[in-house]
């Protein structure tokens, strides 16, 4: 028969910078970092919507948005997030809202027909509480979850499975990335529901500002944690959008651990608080150790660049310039 | 199937105000419709037995259909039940499919999330696990009396009998019946036949649901299983006899068995006074009769 011309292969993400990219959750810690990175890389058509402009928990609104905008790429970084306290106080809100957001976005992405690739961001809390460390991707669902955030975790697990289901049944190029504990600019520094690192920054800063004699931190300080600067995560996300189309989710971590005690001391130093650091060991510690095995993404060729101390210095600077308005 | 068994039981117990909607009347996957329905009807009690079912093969062939629809149904009903303000108690039907493949047998409630559900079945199981966790979350945050029952391998009358089903009992009935009417010499069944299975009649499960609604307000889900195990060989023989097929059964041992045993520990349910009453043979006889009636109706149409 006649000559068959090879179909032009689709350009990879990084060769497709004029294509429309929808970043869901662009105001949060992760979404804002990804947005910054995309713009810095020269993407010309990045679409965002605030919660007030587009409530992702509303199915009809999300469908209408996708039908109108027809993005080629979707980064799903929108979620309802919070620390131990928030999760245990509002479990129903956490689980329902996150499920709705995920289901609506992934399904609308398929139905509108224009989406070539979708990346879903999860969290390391999807893994079993007692998963062998470092935690590999294969540990998923092999044991019970950490009770204090199992609601958020089960919703995220459903999100991973949803991406797999859409790939298997409809060939949607949907991938999932699971970051370790993140920190950086635009984090949530709220006293009640922030995660440990921003909470420490805030508390040491406030103690410095009012010359408090000491800062009391919950727990023993002995749990081990891994932290990754959000700019590194943004970089990894773009790397995966460009190069990964596998069924399995991908861990994104730095590979380096610190104890909460080392972290607290580092934050104290960076903030410049001169008082005492006291540990209230009557309060819970949370998970004893959490280190991801990120060899999968490291072997693909991606490595983090931001060192913890340097990252803390930059984050504290951002906090002072953007969060503190009239503290004095 | 289970929903209609529950409906029957409630009606026979004298409940005067049982509300149900067909799929055509109310699409539970459509959030605004569910909200409107709950705000209009304001039920005091809710039993959530709706969902896409179909067994391991159906689930592996259509992962999205199972996941998206079932997640939406669960989220919509629980959210609407909470928001309308009238619901005093809600029961969510989960399934033994939530348990890991290598769970200890009989499977206790505590086996949940100690391992992954059977590969291929996760698209059905994950939404069920999510529903179970949602009920716990709603109880914790809102004080909603949301409970969960986890039946094992239900069978029973369904109207209409599906033309395609990979649930083993209806599949065997149909295949033996077809072999009988076409005069086929043999029926091939997959696997060795030595796998043990527990089957629970929908009427017995309905009775358990009613008991749970009346007496149980615990955080943990409750297994609902007949406690009677048969090998698939014994089951096939029973179906053959009930249908009256006189040919041979041939075992295709090249095909996979699935798990060798799947029995849930229903001592929690039994301790509440529940006793399954339907003997497997009697259940099969009634089911076959119903199947024949359905076929006659279809033939006439």
From TrEMBL, chain A:
<dbReference type="InterPro" id="IPR028614">
    <property type="entry name" value="GDP_fucose/colitose_synth"/>
</dbReference>
<dbReference type="GO" id="GO:0042351">
    <property type="term" value="P:'de novo' GDP-L-fucose biosynthetic process"/>
</dbReference>
<keyword id="KW-0560">Oxidoreductase</keyword>
<dbReference type="InterPro" id="IPR001509">
    <property type="entry name" value="Epimerase_deHydtase"/>
</dbReference>
<comment type="similarity">
    <text>Belongs to the NAD(P)-dependent epimerase/dehydratase family. Fucose synthase subfamily.</text>
</comment>
<feature type="domain" description="NAD-dependent epimerase/dehydratase">
    <location>
        <begin position="21"/>
        <end position="253"/>
    </location>
</feature>
<keyword id="KW-0413">Isomerase</keyword>
<keyword id="KW-0521">NADP</keyword>
<dbReference type="InterPro" id="IPR036291">
    <property type="entry name" value="NAD(P)-bd_dom_sf"/>
</dbReference>
<comment type="pathway">
    <text>Nucleotide-sugar biosynthesis; GDP-L-fucose biosynthesis via de novo pathway; GDP-L-fucose from GDP-alpha-D-mannose: step 2/2.</text>
</comment>
<dbReference type="GO" id="GO:0050577">
    <property type="term" value="F:GDP-L-fucose synthase activity"/>
</dbReference>
<dbReference type="GO" id="GO:0016853">
    <property type="term" value="F:isomerase activity"/>
</dbReference>
<protein>
    <recommendedName>
        <fullName>GDP-L-fucose synthase</fullName>
        <ecNumber>1.1.1.271</ecNumber>
    </recommendedName>
</protein>
<dbReference type="Pfam" id="PF01370">
    <property type="entry name" value="Epimerase"/>
</dbReference>
<keyword id="KW-0511">Multifunctional enzyme</keyword>
Automatic annotation (TrEMBL), chain B:
<feature type="domain" description="NAD-dependent epimerase/dehydratase">
    <location>
        <begin position="1"/>
        <end position="225"/>
    </location>
</feature>
<dbReference type="GO" id="GO:0016853">
    <property type="term" value="F:isomerase activity"/>
</dbReference>
<protein>
    <recommendedName>
        <fullName>GDP-L-fucose synthase</fullName>
        <ecNumber>1.1.1.271</ecNumber>
    </recommendedName>
</protein>
<dbReference type="InterPro" id="IPR001509">
    <property type="entry name" value="Epimerase_deHydtase"/>
</dbReference>
<dbReference type="InterPro" id="IPR036291">
    <property type="entry name" value="NAD(P)-bd_dom_sf"/>
</dbReference>
<comment type="similarity">
    <text>Belongs to the NAD(P)-dependent epimerase/dehydratase family. Fucose synthase subfamily.</text>
</comment>
<keyword id="KW-0521">NADP</keyword>
<keyword id="KW-0560">Oxidoreductase</keyword>
<dbReference type="InterPro" id="IPR028614">
    <property type="entry name" value="GDP_fucose/colitose_synth"/>
</dbReference>
<comment type="pathway">
    <text>Nucleotide-sugar biosynthesis; GDP-L-fucose biosynthesis via de novo pathway; GDP-L-fucose from GDP-alpha-D-mannose: step 2/2.</text>
</comment>
<dbReference type="GO" id="GO:0050577">
    <property type="term" value="F:GDP-L-fucose synthase activity"/>
</dbReference>
<dbReference type="Pfam" id="PF01370">
    <property type="entry name" value="Epimerase"/>
</dbReference>
<dbReference type="GO" id="GO:0042351">
    <property type="term" value="P:'de novo' GDP-L-fucose biosynthetic process"/>
</dbReference>
<keyword id="KW-0413">Isomerase</keyword>
């Amino acid at each position: 028969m006649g000559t068959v011309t090879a179909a032009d292969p689709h350009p990879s993400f990084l060769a497709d910078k004029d294509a429309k990219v929808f970043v869901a959750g662009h105001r949060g810690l992760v979404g804002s970092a990804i947005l910054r990175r995309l713009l810095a890389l020269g993407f010309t058509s990045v679409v965002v919507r605030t919660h007030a402009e587009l409530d992702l928990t509303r199915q009809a609104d999300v469908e209408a948005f996708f039908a109108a905008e027809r993005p080629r790429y979707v980064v799903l970084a929108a979620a309802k997030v919070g620390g131990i306290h928030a999760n245990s106080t509002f479990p129903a809100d956490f689980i329902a809202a996150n499920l709705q957001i995920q289901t609506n976005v992934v399904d609308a992405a398929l139905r509108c027909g224009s989406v070539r690739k979708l990346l879903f961001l999860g969290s390391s809390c999807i893994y079993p509480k007692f998963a062998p460390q470092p935690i590999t991707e294969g540990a998923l669902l092999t044991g019970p979850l950490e009770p204090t955030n199992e609601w958020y975790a089960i919703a995220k697990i459903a999100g991973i499975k949803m991406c797999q289901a859409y790939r298997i049944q409809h060939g949607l190029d949907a991938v999932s990335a699971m970051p370790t504990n993140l920190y950086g600019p635009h984090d949530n520094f709220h006293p009640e529901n922030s995660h440990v690192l921003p909470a420490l920054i805030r508390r040491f800063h406030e103690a410095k500002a009012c010359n408090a004699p000491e800062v009391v931190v919950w727990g023993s300080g002995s749990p081990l944690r891994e932290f990754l600067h959000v700019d590194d995560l943004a970089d990894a996300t773009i790397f995966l959008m460009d190069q990964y189309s596998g069924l399995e989710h991908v861990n994104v971590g730095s590979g380096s651990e610190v104890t909460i005690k080392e972290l607290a001391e580092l934050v104290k130093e960076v903030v410049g608080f001169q008082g005492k650091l006291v540990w209230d060991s009557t309060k819970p510690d949370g998970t004893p150790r959490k280190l991801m095995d990120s060899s999968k993404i490291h072997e693909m060729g991606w490595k983090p660049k931001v060192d913890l101390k340097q990252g803390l210095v930059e984050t504290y600077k951002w906090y002072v310039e953007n969060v503190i308005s009239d503290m004095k | 199937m289970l929903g209609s068994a529950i409906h029957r039981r409630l009606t026979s117990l004298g409940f005067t105000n049982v509300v149900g909607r067909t799929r055509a009347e109310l699409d539970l996957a459509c959030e605004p419709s569910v909200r409107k329905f709950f705000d209009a009807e304001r039920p005091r009690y809710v039993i959530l037995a709706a969902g896409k079912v179909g067994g391991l093969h159906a689930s592996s062939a259509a992962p999205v259909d199972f996941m998206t629809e079932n997640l939406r149904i669960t989220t919509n009903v629980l959210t609407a039940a909470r928001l309308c303000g009238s619901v005093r108690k809600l029961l969510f039907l989960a399934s033994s499919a939530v348990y890991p493949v290598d769970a200890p047998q009989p499977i206790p409630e505590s086996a949940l999330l100690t391992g992954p559900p059977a590969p291929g079945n996760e698209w059905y199981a994950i939404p069920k696990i999510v529903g179970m966790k949602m009920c716990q979350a709603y109880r914790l945050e809102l004080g909603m009396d949301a409970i969960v029952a986890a039946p094992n391998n239900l069978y029973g009358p369904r109207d209409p009998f599906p033309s395609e089903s990979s649930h083993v009992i209806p599949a065997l009935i149909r295949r033996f019946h077809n072999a009988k009417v076409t005069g086929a010499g043999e029926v091939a069944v997959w696997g060795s036949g030595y796998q043990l299975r527990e089957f629970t009649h929908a009427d017995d499960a309905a009775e358990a649901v009613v008991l749970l609604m009346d007496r149980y307000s615990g955080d943990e889900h409750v297994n609902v299983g007949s406690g009677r195990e048969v090998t698939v060989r014994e089951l096939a023989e029973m179906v053959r006899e009930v249908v009256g097929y006189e040919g041979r059964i041939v075992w295709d041992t090249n095909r996979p068995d699935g798990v060798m045993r799947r029995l849930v520990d229903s001592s929690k349910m039994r301790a509440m006074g529940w006793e399954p009453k339907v003997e497997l043979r009697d259940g099969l006889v009634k089911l076959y009769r119903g199947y024949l009636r359905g076929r006659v109706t279809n033939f006439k149409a």
